[in-house]
Amino acid sequence: MDSHFGLSFTHGQGIWLYDENGRAYLDATSGMAQCSLGYAHPDVTGTLQKQAALLLHGATHHHCLEQERLAQRLARMTPLQHAFFCHSGAEANEIAIKFARLFGHKKGIDTPSIMVMNGAFHGSTLATLSASSSRKMHAGHEPLVTGFVRAPYNDMDALRTIAHHRDDVVAVMLELIQSEAGVVSANSAYLRAVATLCAERDWLFMVDEVQTANGRTGSLLASQAMDVVPDSLTMAKGLANGVPIGVCLLGERVVDRIKPAQQDAAWGGNALACATALTVLDVIERDALCEHAFAMGSRLKEQCMDAFGDQAHVKSIRGRGLLLGIELDRPAWDCRRLGLFHQIILDVTAEKVIRLMPPLIIQAHEIDALVLRLKQTLDAFVGA
Fold first, then answer.
1. What CATH topology corresponds to 9-33+288-383?
2. Does the pTM exceed 0.85?
3. Given CA atoms 13, 282, 213, 47 in this order, what sign does their dihedral have?
């Protein structure tokens, strides 16, 4: 059986996906965190139908009203005022890397470097793959893009040491929660210290919120809850509920210094994606989904702790909002297959971590169902 386990889904409703035989599966992954409002959300469906009848994509070099409205909306909702739209989180991170290099060249540094973290994952394009730390993902794609300096995550002393010995660094790029590394969170004191170091050294503080933005962790941006304001911030997953979109947000400090040229993205910021993203943000605000995600995430973590937190094979349950990791004492890949027998779709990352990312619209009784099915899966996994 291949990695798709022989399943094909025909439709979805809420947090549920249905296979060709009409069997329902609780999706604890939100389609890899893309479908933050779940499936067949009526507001999203209505916007897609309406916009498709009007305009999908127009001439690139002319104004797109939906794009302008989305940029203005993000400027109101976040501390960063400039938006560059693209098609994915990886491309948003590519744009952030390009801006950092422009920033470095404006400072007179011929070969500017960006400090990135051990455990990081920033995407699968060649530059973002090079900025990531997975040797397995690097293999076969060499030579990698140069210009990245690696540092231990959550280790401020290491950053200061590198700063002391390198004069080519122009930025620090990091995730607030390293989701692919097993849902490992930065601590707030570390993040504030990184921001301070960047200000002292005239570096850019670059935050990758591709997975943590759009309400996933219980606030629109994880950086808002962690009380840091970066110079650049990337968003993608969940912003348009499965319609491809990415955005790199920039603060005045960056734009004032480098006067960036237009970034070309053939379908970036198209009318359909931007209209859908506006609707997603409308629903997040109207239905208080950030607060709801925080409450449901707390319920999920508490119930997981009660159900199997004290079992020997469970090493840790961690995370924030509706981004949780359950670390086991052994490789957990088989939990994905076993979960399907109990009609739950699971994700495994960092080999031993079951990652839970259910849609933000999940309700209390569905949290209960998720934990029950997960426990049944773990019992089968341990007993196998």
1. Aspartate Aminotransferase, domain 1 (3.90.1150)
2. yes
3. positive
